[in-house]
Design goal:
Elements (H helix, E strand, L loop, with lengths): L2 H14 L1 H39 L3 E8 L16 E2 H10 L4 E4 L1 E10 L5 E9 L3 H5 L3 E4 L4 H5 L4 E5 H7 L10 E6 L8 E10 L3 H6 L8 H6 L2 E6 H7 L8 E2 L2 E5 L5 H15 L6 E7 H24 L1 H19 L1 H9 L4 H45 L1 H4 L10 H27 L3 H6 L2
Parallel strand pairs: 5-10, 7-9
Antiparallel strand pairs: 1-12, 1-13, 2-11, 3-12, 4-5, 4-8, 6-9, 8-9
Helix pairs in contact: 1-14, 2-11, 2-12, 2-14, 2-16, 12-14, 12-16, 14-16
């Protein structure tokens, strides 16, 4: 009897005793579905973290002063001399202008302006560098972003939100090129006027509108009370604050790299620039924080936990295997006369043995396939539930989280292979027992 005939006979045997076959598979189904569900959840969380980091712009290296490892001297608070200055960051970029970029932002202060109807409108001014919007992923729906020429030329340009346009102009149409006069309300620049020309408009998403209370507005005055951000060139902000890059302290700087460079080369450039500057500083040095490295550590921990839980869940496959062995022994007793007839017609011990081994493998493989399907469905359902909970209880963060459902292909392959191995291991003893039967005794069996 060839392999194909053995498979046909195995399915025919399963079809004769459908309920018993299903109950036999149940242990395998539960074990495999548990493993696939767990690995799908783990893999999906890992993919969600990776995609979210990519959406938020994770191709940045954060640099900041940190205490040297093993420092045992007197503890000194970070002084201006120990801090990073904007001039240092700009010098680093100027050394590698085609390879490195940087982004920075700082609060200028609360300002006020009068709209076209003469009503006061408040806004928060923020100074930003030219690649700031590459990092924060804001949607610019009109005009353009802050450019390098705006930054270098200290131009009085700005980006406003679509909601500010509604507050100030009453519309979002034809606002590019309009100039607005702002008066500073706080800090050293209180009362100082600043005229900015609109070069771009940012669209607030529905979630952002919810977070600033737009959807709770009931009248025109409440609409005007909503405070939005207005972005203008960082160097222009320094000029208005009578500061220079030399005396501008940055707590940390975001260093990026272009297509002509890579992350490791960027790290090397940063070390080469700052190591001589901090060589004689016994307490402080410049630390490079790599978001992707941190993400890799999180994913590693997540994978270890997923594998550990999956192994625990896979123990149930042993229980399922015992059930397969038990039902195969019962099946052999029921088909003793059939075995005797086949041996009398010339079937070899190996033929009988292979028939029952294949039958056990088919049972486990079928159960494994059903378990994989259930596991994937469970993973999808759990992700849908997670999405609903996220939008219900953390709506302000939902748009920044790229939920991803990604079943683990290796886990599926390993699970199916393990289910086949279970059938082979737990089906071999009953199959061997059937193959070793004496044909005369088998024919006499009642």
């Amino acid at each position: 009897m060839n392999f194909t005939e053995s498979i046909k006979m195995a399915f025919a045997s399963l079809a004769v005793n459908k309920m018993r076959s299903f109950l036999t598979m149940l242990g395998i189904i539960i074990g495999i579905s548990a493993v696939i569900t767990i690995t799908t959840i783990g893999n999906s969380i890992s993919s969600t973290l990776t995609n979210t980091f990519n959406e938020l712009g994770s191709n940045k290296l954060s640099i900041y002063p940190a205490v040297r490892e093993g420092y045992s001297g007197e503890w000194n608070d970070l002084t201006d001399e120990d801090s990073i200055t904007l001039k240092q960051v700009q010098e680093l970029i100027n050394l590698h202008p085609e390879e490195l970029t940087y982004s920075c932002d700082d609060r200028y202060g609360m300002t006020e302006t009068a709209n076209v109807n003469g009503d006061p409108v408040k806004a928060e001014l923020v100074g930003v560098s030219d690649d700031y919007f590459d990092q924060v992923k804001k949607q610019i729906v009109q005009g353009r972003s802050i450019s390098k020429s705006d930054l270098i030329g200290m131009k009085n340009t700005c980006l406003v939100s679509d909601y500010f346009c509604e507050q100030y102009f009453g519309t979002t149409k034809n606002v590019i090129g309009k100039t607005i006069k702002f008066s500073t309300l706080e800090g050293e620049n209180t009362g100082r006027n600043l005229k900015l020309t609109i070069v771009g408009v940012i669209e607030y998403t529905e979630l952002e509108r919810n977070s600033i209370g737009v959807n709770k507005v009931h009248n025109e005055q409440e609409k005007l009370d909503i405070i939005t951000y207005i972005f203008f060139p960082y160097n222009t902000m320094l000029k208005e604050m009578s500061k220079t890059p030399e005396d501008t302290i940055v707590n940390s700087a975001e260093i990026g790299w272009t297509s002509k460079c890579d992350k490791e080369t960027a790290k090397k450039y940063i070390d080469e620039y700052f190591e001589p500057i901090y060589a004689e500083n016994e307490q402080w040095y410049i630390k490079i924080y790599d978001e992707e490295k941190m993400l890799g550590m999180i994913n590693t921990v997540l994978n270890v936990v997923t594998i550990a839980i999956s192994i625990i869940a896979a123990i149930s496959l042993i229980v399922g295997g015992v059930g397969v062995m038990n039902i195969m022994l019962v099946s052999i007793l029921e088909r003793t006369r059939e075995i005797g007839v086949r041996k009398a017609l010339g079937a070899l011990n190996g033929d009988i043995r292979s028939q029952f081994v294949i039958e056990a493998i088919i049972i486990c493989l079928t159960g494994g396939t059903i378990g994989v399907i259930i596991g994937i469905v469970n993973g999808v359902l759990i992700s849908k539930i997670a999405s609903v909970l996220l939008n219900t209880f953390a709506a302000e963060y939902a748009e920044f989280i790229a939920l991803t459902v990604e079943p683990s292909i290796p886990a599926i392959i390993i699970s199916l292979a393990f289910s086949m191995l279970t059938g082979l291991v737990f089906g071999y003893y009953p199959a061997k027992r059937a193959g070793n039967m004496n044909p005369i005794d088998a024919l006499r069996y009642e």
